[in-house]
Amino acid sequence: MSPTPPHNDPMETLLGILELSDAGGAQTDEDIFVGLGDEHAPRPRLFGGQVLAQSIVAAARTVEKDHLVHSMHGYFLRPGDAASPLTFGVQRLRDGRSFSARRTHAYQGAVPILSMIASFQRPDTGIEHQDKMPEGIPGPETLPTSAQLLGGIDHPVARAWAYERPFDIRHVGANIYFDVKGEHVAHQAVWLKTLGPMPSDQNLHRAALAYASDYTLLEPSLRRHGISWAMPGISVASLDHAMWWHRPLAVDDWLLYVAESPSASEARGLNLGRFFTRDGVLVATVAQEGMMRVPDGTVTD
Questions:
Q1: With a threshold of 0.90, does the pTM exceed it?
Q2: In a domain, 255, yes or no
Q3: Strand pairing partners for 192?
Q4: Segment 239-262, tens digit of pLDDT
Q5: What InterPro entries does the record point to (predicted)?
């Protein structure tokens, strides 16, 4: 008998996580916001994409409504507790005519777990060009869902990936959940979108995309060496995260997430990703380095 899907609504959880409170107007030399943890998380460690998204939302609360986040650079300083609330302190670094800069620290237990600087811009016009979307990629409707791949596995992490993520994520080709089939290459592609509609706020869509970007970005480094998420003894953690948003996007419509790993060394893997709309518009680029430790003798490639 297949495991019973959970009763919580993943979209309701996502929107609740992104709906920060202003801590009753509390303020020091920073604007203070409070965000929820995720009580439905399958693991005690806080998901990095969540704290990234919440930090962007906190910063966006302090800029003019017509200013959109166009870049962020963050460092994961400490592991967070998934079930505990977070406090966000936003420092207003600069407000110009077109650009505003913010520094956000995310805190748990009175210590920072993430430090991020983000830049916001009022929409403008200028020169334009972009990379082309890869050709020959099958559409998302032709690919299996995570629920179809993992829904029959009676394991808490498999159940969470199948039913509790607020995103529909579909790998183009083989996934690396439990093994690595096919050639060990340092690139991959996935389709993704939220399971339900999002509010129209463009900064919220961009924050949600930062949330989703952390799900699979380290996989090209792992795939290159035949390492699955289920390898016994593996230890993987995000170290930093940088993201650039190029054009307006809708995270509740399908986006193709193309990623590659140009280098891995000294227990770290660097991974780069690009997001395209179905009609080939490049909307965002992301980069992340992750710590990757595997038991001695388990990887020979």
A1: yes
A2: yes
A3: 169, 255
A4: 999 999 999 999 999 999 999 999
A5: Acyl-CoA_hotdog, Acyl_CoA_thio, HotDog_dom_sf, TesB_ACOT8-like_N, TesB_C
